Every structure is written in structure tokens, then in C-alpha cells.
Amino acid sequence: MRATQIVLVLFWLLCIHSPTLFCANVEYDHRALVIDGKRRVLISGSIHYPRSTPEMWPDLIQKSKDGGLDVIETYVFWNLNEPVRGQYDFDGRKDLVKFVKTVAAAGLYVHLRIGPYVCAEWNYGGFPLWLHFIPGIKFRTDNEPFKAEMKRFTAKIVDMIKEENLYASQGGPVILSQIENEYGNIDSAYGAAGKSYIKWAATMATSLDTGVPWVMCQQADAPDPIINTCNGFYCDQFTPNSNTKPKMWTENWSGWFLPFGGAVPYRPVEDLAFAVARFFQRGGTFQNYYMYHGGTNFDRTSGGPFIATSYDYDAPIDEYGIIRQPKWGHLKEVHKAIKLCEEALIATDPTITSLGPNLEAAVYKTGSVCAAFLANVDTKSDVTVNFSGNSYHLPAWSVSILPDCKNVVLNTAKINSASAISSFTTESLKEDIGSSEASSTGWSWISEPVGISKADSFPQTGLLEQINTTADKSDYLWYSLSIDYKGDAGSQTVLHIESLGHALHAFINGKLAGSQTGNSGKYKFTVDIPVTLVAGKNTIDLLSLTVGLQVQIF
């Protein structure tokens, strides 16, 4: 036996005897991802490792598998994992490798969205703030300082995954990686430099030799061999930029994020199920829920600005890891119905015909294998249609799935899962304890003096650019000044403030005089605060706040 044959036999034995070794060769053609030579229909869901705790991960992933998922998708968060240049942190919630291994232990695949810009309603879009201070840097464009840092971090993550043999090409669960993120939404602002940057990003990513395909979402001009994918509430009309690439949906928004002061987002499961079925009806073979479990923006990770700490997203598994019904249960039934059609879906392209106004049939047929999808895209009227000699009732805005082209196993508008509403109890803190003491409930607090109380203050004329001043080490920046008022005590005037920050509190002589905030639609603000001065010395203290940082594109 030759040496190459021995290696192959050993690899086969490892595959047989290791429960988390996937032994996959991942490629793609125009219909689907091809894993170990077989086209696959894949249902995926996003769970971001730092938005839940390691103790929660096994349960979240098992509930995802029970719900019919094949793949878990996660971003990689640069500012979390490299808070200081060259100093990495992968402990606790930041342990990317442990998360990937936990997914593998459940027998699911992983889509690793490295970015490293991720948006994700995450502070500074996932960029570490120290990038801001590199001389000559411009983010997400053909800029050498930025490209050097982006390549260094991307290579770091790829090397980590390789060292643990976690890519599918090494027998691991990672079948896809993503470079950049929704750049096509803004690339026109960068002109020619944006075009050359995206080509560079594609070349850089593929040069890292992961052995699995790379994707770019919302990037219509993604260079070969990068697969361009769709993000949105509906992606059934999406077409890849090459007839050699499969139709993939990287973000099917299961709900939406919550801004402070905004309404709690809600997306009916009937609409979500309709969108999923329509995507597979019209040729899709990979679909991902963003989010399947949204989780929590812990610490100071909320972005935006004005993104709430809850990232529940109205996902099938709620912020606390509880199954949300009927969303989880109904989608599980949708996944079962689609999987019954898999043999037909991967065998051929659909033949799409009109059954009347706003009515459409898609048939996948080859030899004795046949599957059909019947859609009513009218938002108001139910109809009865004739298809292949049989009558079918189609509620408004629904898809019926027929795995044998005859019998309906599911209609997306008809829910059989029971509804469930979680209830929570509140607890009041009633003890009268000192500010530095811990109460019996575990809560504690400190009393902070008004104004500058630390030795690192410095004189400055006018208001400062807050990011440059705090380097995002704090959300707060104090301004303190004093004036000698020679008029009568009790005189009133107006304090006029123009702020580029997100919120502000004004104190006169140690007492709160007024506050003002921006909102998720308008961050900066102008405020006039009536104040009363005393004769002689008056102190004015302003507390400026940021509520999550947004990356500017220029």
C-alpha cells in the first residue's frame, strides 16, 4: 500500500470513530453547497457567541437542532477579541473556539462570518477603537494601514480555527466563511477605492487557504470565487451574480433590533414562514435566520447609537434561551416540509408557472422525483387553484408545500403549534443600606460626586470630540467650569449647549438643572436650559454621554 493510501485509510478511520469529525470536502455549484460530493439543502440560524453565556450554549444549540437547523452562523467580534492591539482575549463569552466546538458536539455545521466589520448593532461595528488612532487610517477602503490590520486579524482567526482542525477541510464543522459585511450598501460612497478594496478583500480571504467557500453578503459584484448572498426580509427574487453560484440567504430577519424608546419588534411567524418557503420555491438552497437566538448586549457592547441591551430580535429562541411559540414550532414544521423536498430540490432547477394573478407554482421534477410549491402572494384574498388536476385552497400570503407534487404537507399560513407567553416577576429593592454595601438581592451601587473628581483632568477651551478624548474607555465625560457672577442673587439666564454627543446632564452649583438626549434617528442635539445663578462664584458641570458608537463611513 502506498503512503497516500495509508493516509486516506487513517483519515477514514478517524472519521468513523470521532463523533465531531465531519470529514467534509465543501464546494458549490449553481444549485447548492456540495458537501462530500452531495448537494445539500441547509437551514441555518444565527447565534452570536458573546451575546449569551458559555453555560447557555449547549442548550441553545440543542434547541436549534431540535428546531430543524443544520448550521449555526456567528460573527467574529474584533473589538471583543482584540481589545488592545496584539493582546487577544478569548475567555468566557469571548471563547470563539469553544463555541464552535460546542456546535460541532451537537452535530451541526458552522458558518463563520469573520468580517471583520460586522455592524450587528454592536459597538463601533465590531472595530476596536484603537484602529481610530492609527495614523493615516481610513476604514473599509483601499487604505494600506487599514488593510494591514484587517488582514492580520482575519489571518489570526483563520489560523486559530485551523490549529483546532475546525474547518470542514480538516474534519471540522466550519463549512463557510464570510469576508466583509454588506459593503455593497455603501461602496458607491468610496468610488474606485471601494471597488479595488473589495477585490483585495476577496483575494486576501481566499489566499488564507481555508478549504471552504467564502461569501460576501449584499455584494452584487463579489469577485469569483466568492459567493454573493442576500440579506433582507424577503430574498426569493434574489439572483447570484454568476450562473455558477448557488442562491443563498445569509440574513432572513426574524424580527428586528430594539432601539431605546422604540416599540418592541415583532414579525409574525406566518410572514417569516412565507418568506422561507418562497425562497426555496424559487431556487434557494441555503437560508439563515438572523437571529435564531439574539441574546443580550452585555457590558458596553451595544452599538447604534441607542441600541438597547436586549438583542431579543423576536427570534425563535428568546433573549433568555426560552423557546418562543408559536414561532419556533411552526418554523420547525416548515423545515420538515422543505427537507421532504430535498431530493427534488437538489436534483434540478424549478419550473415556475403562473396559476393566475398573484398565484405561482414551482415544480422540481426529475425522473420519478417531484416536489411542488404553490404560492398566493396576494396579501388579502384567499383563493382556490387548480394544479395538476387537483384543487388546492391557498390562504392569502401563503405557500403550500407538496413533497410529492400531490399532497400538501404544510401551508405557511396555517399554524399548528401552540402559542406560549412568558411571564416575569419584578422584585423591588426595599432595604435602606449604605451606598457601598451589597443588598440581600445582590444589587449594589456607589455615590459619585458631581463634576470632575479625578486627578487626570486638563484645561480645554470649548467642548471636545468625545471619542478622541475617552478612547471609548468610558461612556462619560465631565466638563467643569466656574464663573464669578457679579449680579443679583437669583438672576435667571439660559445655558445654551450644542452637542454632538448622545445625551447630556447639566448641573449648576451641584444641582441638576436639566438634561437632553438624542434618539436613534437624530443623535446630535441643541438644548437651552434655564438656570438660576447666585452672586459670586457659580460652578457649571456638564456630563456628556455616549450610548453606543457607530462607525462613520468616511
Automatic annotation (TrEMBL):
Residue stretches making up the Beta-galactosidase beta-sandwich domain: 361-415
GO molecular function: beta-galactosidase activity
Classification via InterPro entries: Galactose-bd-like_sf, GH, GHD, Gly_Hdrlase_35_cat, Glyco_hydro_35_CS, Glycoside_Hdrlase_35
Catalytic activity, as annotated: Hydrolysis of terminal non-reducing beta-D-galactose residues in beta-D-galactosides
Keyword Hydrolase appears in the UniProt entry: yes
Signal peptide: 1-23
Residues covered by the Glycoside hydrolase 35 catalytic domain: 33-337
Annotated EC: 3.2.1.23
Keywords: Glycosidase, Hydrolase, Signal
Annotated transmembrane regions: none
Gene Ontology BP terms: carbohydrate metabolic process
Domain of life: Eukaryota
Family: Belongs to the glycosyl hydrolase 35 family.
PANTHER family: BETA-GALACTOSIDASE RELATED
Protein name as catalogued: beta-galactosidase
Organism the protein comes from: Glycine soja
Upper taxonomic lineage: Eukaryota, Viridiplantae, Streptophyta, Embryophyta, Tracheophyta
